[in-house]
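Researcher: Next entry in the queue.
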Amino acid sequence: MDIKDLKVLVKMVTETDITEFELENADEKIRIKRGTAPEVIHYQQPPVAPVQFPSVQQAAPAAPAEASSAPAPVAEKGQKIVSPIVGTFYRAPAPDAAPYVEVGQVVEKGQVLCIVEAMKLMNEIEAEFRCKIVKICKENAQPVEFGECLFIVEPL
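Model: Structure for this entry, 156 residues:
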């Protein structure tokens, strides 16, 4: 095989998605490979110490003792409005703007109560019913978890 034919073969391999080409006859053997073999990297996660939780049998006797020694927290009157997502709680649309709601304010259904920012998306939390704000449970710019109480309201 002359150099001209070899150049044609190399051009054919480079212009297509062929990564390996092999030609063999009685007189010669030609093998053309493109690229390199993929590098395989193995990761090993460090061992994690097991977490032990008390069993139900161990926790049951301790509960009455704690309840008798400490006064029970006073339950808040009203209904909770909880965060539907994990994010950051904001009381106002901007740092220099007035808060959406204040304690004692009556809000209508669909009125914005706050914003919960999640991954740079501002999610407006709206009142699902007409109510009076009894307590604002979070501070401005505080992180919140899914299901965490944002407001305690009194339905009207």
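Model: The radius of gyration is 33 Å.
Researcher: Noted, moving on.
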